[in-house]
Specification:
There is one protein chain. By secondary structure, the chain is mainly α. Helices cover 75% and strands 0% of the residues. The chain contains seven helices and no strands. α1 runs antiparallel to α6.
Length: 203
């Protein structure tokens, strides 16, 4: 099995967390101003998910030597779902949303139930969380609706951003620490995503 230094993995996950926070905030902001259409953003979101899946496959290939046909099939099934036609109505959007989330869960379960893949759960779970939050934002803005950026939203988004920056700063300070472990940061990363969830729920 191929291995990577914990610091490199942590830096990558923390960097992705910051990017996720910025993208979610930007999406909510653009939709709240009416400067973006939920239908169009849904298509862009599906394309971004496909790009993220490609990156996950690259990570998978870099860390796993074994064959993983069943996981590959599930990933392909998910990618095919993302290639479904444009959702021109809210009903079609909700149908595609449901199917995308179901197939994401299938991949997540396969990863968590296969010991050799388990360490990759920390790369895949953020994709699942981010996708759920993106789709929640879009649903709140479908059919011409505009979800207001509430005080609760702004407070939680700011808190998430601050916590993520603390994680990144700490990683920079401890980049030469040979005893640095993922477990030391797992709770902080989880808390940051919880603040993102609360922010989106507050829209």
């Amino acid at each position: 099995m191929k291995t990577k230094k914990p610091i490199l993995i942590l830096v990558k996950i923390a960097g992705q967390l910051l990017k996720d926070q910025q993208e979610l905030d930007y999406l909510a902001f653009q939709l709240s101003l009416g400067e973006a259409e939920a239908k169009e953003e849904f298509e862009k979101t599906k394309s971004k998910i496909k790009n993220s899946l490609h990156k996950f496959r690259v990570e998978l290939n870099s860390q796993i030597d074994e064959e993983y046909a069943f996981l590959d099939n599930s990933l392909t099934d998910l990618e095919n779902e993302l290639d479904e036609g444009e959702a021109k109505t809210k009903e079609l959007f909700l149908k595609q949303k449901k199917n995308i989330l179901q197939k994401l869960e299938v991949v997540k379960i396969e990863i968590e139930n296969t010991p050799v893949f388990l360490k990759l759960a920390d790369f895949f779970t953020p994709l699942l969380i981010k996708t759920k939050l993106q789709l929640e934002i879009l649903e709140k803005n479908f059919d011409g609706k505009k979800a207001e950026l509430t005080t609760g939203y702004n407070e939680e988004m700011i808190t998430a951003h601050e916590k993520i920056n603390v994680i990144i700063s700490t990683l920079k300070e401890k980049q030469d620490d040979a005893n640095l472990k993922w477990e030391n940061f797992k709770d902080e990363i989880h808390i940051s995503y919880e603040h993102l969830r609360k922010a989106i729920h507050a829209l």
